[in-house]
Design goal:
Elements lengths: L1 H19 L12 E5 L6 E7 L4 H15 L5 E7 L2 H14 L6 E5 L17 H4 L9 H4 L2 E2 L2 E2 L9 E6 H6 L10 H14 L5 E3 L5 H9 L16 H16 L3 E3 L8 H8 L5 E5 L3 H7 L7 E4 L17 E5 L6 H12 L2 H11 L19 H6 L3 H8 L12 H18 L5 H14 L1
Parallel strand pairs: 2-3, 2-4, 8-9
Antiparallel strand pairs: 1-3, 4-12, 5-6, 7-10, 7-11
Length: 441
């Protein structure tokens, strides 16, 4: 009975998300793209679901390497990309109903707790994780684990950095290396607005990634280590006030076109020089190279400003855990292939070379292959991993719970809208209301 109740609660929650967290994507059940990789007659077919079309490139690279290395066990991968909400909802329903799930699937970090409720309908990956765990940033595995079993394989460290448009910053007379703190950042922003046609940055009202990185920098979070809601603590209130002030008091920022940093409107805005900077994880490099091509050679990567001298200059944000479902007819092959793709040295090097992600396997960071010229070095310069090595010990772990999606919903539909867009609530009022909603859910 308890499992049934949980199922219907999750169904209701997902329905609310579809209405309240519309990401501007279609809601039909058809895949937005399908790619067949390795179409050999004697290959074993595996189906892969993702919500980020770019992730297919990593698996394409892996299938090609796998089929050359293991010609007697070739794989044919059918990769299907769906809109974010649609894919997660369909996957959850398929796992609960016991039919219709793919062999392999991507699950975004904030949705992952939903798939760990009760008895996870996913295959544990311990036999592949445990032999190499000491070579990884281990906290990335913990996000996707339950009761000592590792279900999701991480995609990146997700170290948050600042991306500066050097053309705009130079026109404003600002040396980006002089920006050490967020106070420095605000003062630099005033020069940008005064001396150029650009804003210093934008503030998301439909997303929460930038806000989360800012509070994580300060040792705060949405939940404490025991899973208790701390969304409305003093640090978080102060941080929402800072975002409000950038827009309405200092006037160095405007609200993000499209609501968040993953929207077509935002890519166009940035590509045309609308803002001088954006704080996003290192995996966001792929968004620049694919959607903001006119900025090639103009974007420099630096650590985040600290909140105080000596404070953390990064935060581990976002993440996709890739899983093998228990409905796979070829579970052992799927698990071995997933480990080959995302746990091996070659796979982690490919995470960088193919997707531009900061690989969670730290022992490859200084390998010669990582230094080879590629589109990311050509776009951003050659200091990318110098920055990562500089900040790798300043990344706090985040606490993910089954209520993390509710926080996302509250922040993107209520808190930021009411405080920044409508100015109808103070940060304290909005966060306390949101926190109470989550506690009482």
């Amino acid at each position: 009975m308890r499992k049934k109740s949980l199922f219907f609660i999750l169904l209701g929650f997902m329905a609310i998300l579809l209405i309240a967290c519309n990401k501007g994507e279609t809601t039909g059940e058809e895949a937005t793209s399908t790619e067949v990789i390795g179409d050999d007659k004697d290959a074993t077919e595996l189906k892969f679901w993702t919500f980020v079309e770019l992730h297919t490139d990593l698996f394409k690279d892996s299938v090609e390497r796998w089929n050359k290395e293991f010609p007697d066990r070739k794989i044919k991968l059918v990769a299907e990309t769906y809109p974010y909400d649609n894919m997660h909802n369909n996957l959850l329903l398929a796992l609960q109903s016991g039919k219709g799930a793919p062999d392999i699937a991507d699950i975004e970090i904030s949705r992952f707790p939903n798939y760990l409720q009760g008895e996870p309908q996913l295959e544990p990956m311990n036999e592949y994780v445990e032999p190499v765990k000491d070579k990884f940033v281990e906290s990335r595995f913990d996000i996707y684990a339950k009761d000592g079993k590792y279900y999701g394989i991480p995609t990146h460290v997700g170290a948050t950095v600042m991306y500066y448009n050097t053309e705009i910053m130079e026109a404003a007379g600002v040396d980006i290396d002089s920006i050490k703190t967020w106070d420095d950042y605000v003062e630099a922003g005033k020069k940008v607005v005064e001396n150029t046609d650009a804003m210093m940055t934008t503030v998301e009202t439909g997303g929460f990634m930038s806000f989360w990185s800012m509070v994580s920098q300060q040792g705060s979070d949405f939940f404490d280590e025991n899973g208790e809601v701390i969304l409305d603590n003093e640090t978080n209130i102060k941080t929402v006030q800072f975002l409000y002030d950038m827009v309405h008091t200092h006037k160095i920022a405007e609200m993000t076109p499209g609501g968040e940093n993953h929207m077509e409107e935002y890519y166009k805005y940035m590509n045309e020089g609308g803002a001088a900077s954006v704080a996003m994880p290192m995996w966001y490099m792929g968004r620049f190279t694919d959607y903001m091509q006119d900025l090639k050679g103009k974007i420099a990567i630096r650590p985040l400003p600290a909140w105080e001298e000596g404070g953390n200059r990064s935060a581990g944000m976002g993440g996709t855990g890739t899983v093998v479902t228990n409905q796979s007819e070829h579970a052992e092959l799927a698990k071995e292939f997933l480990a080959y793709t995302k746990l091996s040295e070659e796979g982690n090097i490919a995470l960088w070379k193919v997707l531009g992600f900061d690989p969670p396997r730290w022992d490859v960071w200084e390998s010669e292959e990582m230094k080879e010229d590629n589109k990311f070095y050509q776009y951003f310069g050659t200091n990318i991993f110098d920055v990562l090595l500089e900040i790798k010990d300043e990344i706090n772990a985040v606490n993910i719970t089954e209520k993390t999606p509710l926080v996302q919903q509250q922040l993107s539909t209520n808190v930021f809208t009411n405080v920044i867009r409508q100015k109808s609530q103070t940060p304290e009022e909005a966060l306390k209301q949101a926190a109470d909603e989550i506690r009482n859910n």
